[in-house]
Write a structure and sequence with these properties.
Blueprint lengths: L1 H17 L1 H7 L4 H29 L1 H18 L6 H15 L1 H13 L2 H33 L3 H20 L16 H5 L2 H30 L5 H7 L2 H22 L4 H15 L12 H29 L2 H32 L3 H21 L8
Length: about 375
């Protein structure tokens, strides 16, 4: 169920990026204006992260996640009625305030249902929904847009979320934690005094925008720089994300495999995160590859590596925080990711309009390494897990 709603979530998110060539023409949007629409969604994510984390900790995942899904699905459907860039940006902000609950709820459920040695693989499977959704979105959205009109492409994902909700309420029940805790609650102030909180927040600050760039800008890049038609984007745009699908599951499986062989969780995270962050450097070659197939492959390697890395980044939250604080800790990392996700599209739009995509690909190549290094340098409590 968590995998399924994550797939739906990312089809929702991808609809605007897949339709960007059409929407930019219809709404007369520059790259900078499109970047502001992307940032509006990220601003909504930032605004909603901690409230959603609190909701999951306070009311439980069963009710909390169902409410989040209905909230963002309503926003997704409303996008079909927008007539301007401002209206689209406002509805994207609304959608972001709900969609951030997908991870707060999912992380909380996984913490409760799985033993520590199983969690990273469970997170990898759950998080791979982001790549499955990104893989499905281009052909699905373009088919709906070309067959029934682009507004239908917003309505169908909204209906999928609404249809999912009663099944979740019927099938899932909140269960007691498998690990006892010494305290009942942890305040926000207490969380913010912990070095681990700042470590995971800074890690997500740098890692989060990388995948967002591939989700929200690659269709526009393929259309404007590689000169692919909308139909060709629908036919081929999913290929890099197919490779990404394998990355999240592999990241979880490798972490579990290393733990079973006696490595400390500190060593497991260092090995998996530094190695995958290094592979993200594949994006440096994308703007300089004249062959489109080679560029697709380089993007696919970078997406796969970043998703591998993300599974272990989210796993770090379950390593470092107790059950009653996992939802809020995930929310805090989401605030950090939302802040960078708000700023990075604005910078991307400016660079694309005034320079090119090349410096953006350089940035997303190095940011995973920076985020990983900050997690281990600042998150001093990790060393006690050696």
């Amino acid at each position: 169920m968590l995998l399924t709603i994550t797939i739906i979530n990312f089809i929702d998110r991808q609809t605007v990026s897949v339709l960007a060539p059409v929407l930019r023409q219809l709404l007369h949007l520059s790259n900078e204006q499109y970047g502001r629409i992307v940032s509006a969604f990220q601003l909504g994510m930032t605004a909603g992260e901690f409230p959603m984390g609190w909701l999951m900790d306070r009311w439980g995942v069963r009710v909390g996640l169902a409410g989040a899904v209905l909230w963002w699905s309503a926003a997704t459907g409303t996008q079909s009625m927008t007539r301007s860039g401002l209206q689209l940006g406002l509805t994207r902000f609304w959608m972001g305030t709900g969609e951030c609950g997908n991870y707060s709820g999912g992380m909380k459920a996984i913490f409760r249902l799985f033993a520590p040695g199983e969690r990273t693989l469970a997170i990898g499977i759950f998080n791979s929904g982001s790549m499955v959704g990104a893989t499905i979105a281009p052909p699905l959205v373009i088919f709906l847009a070309q067959r029934y009109g682009f507004r239908t492409a917003f309505l169908v994902p909204a209906l999928l979320g609404i249809f999912w909700t009663p099944f979740w309420l019927y099938l899932y029940r909140d269960v007691a934690s498998k690990r006892p805790t010494l305290t009942v609650t942890t305040s926000l102030r207490t969380l913010l005094t912990r070095s681990s909180a700042w470590g995971v927040m800074l890690c997500r600050f740098f890692i989060g925008p990388v995948m967002q760039f591939y989700w929200y800008w690659i269709p526009s890049y393929l259309y404007s720089v590689r000169h692919l038609s909308l139909a060709q984007i629908g036919l081929l745009g999913w290929v890099p994300f197919l490779l990404g699908d394998t990355g999240g599951i592999a990241g979880g499986w490798v972490a579990g495999w290393l733990q079973k062989r006696g490595l400390s969780i500190y060593s497991v995270r260092r090995i998996t995160m530094y190695s995958s962050a290094t592979l993200c450097l594949a994006s440096l070659g994308v703007p300089y590859l004249t062959n489109t197939a080679a560029a697709f492959f380089a993007i696919g390697i970078a997406v796969m590596a970043d998703n591998f890395l993300s599974a272990n980044m989210f796993g770090a939250v379950t390593d470092l925080f107790p059950d009653h604080a996992v939802g809020r800790a995930t929310g805090l990392t989401g605030v950090a990711g939302g802040l960078s996700g708000l700023l990075f599209p604005l910078l991307t739009g400016h660079l694309v309009d005034h320079v090119s995509y090349a410096p953006v690909f350089v940035m997303v190549g190095f940011m995973p390494l920076i985020g990983t290094a900050l997690l281990f340098l600042i998150g001093r409590e990790y060393r006690s897990l050696q």
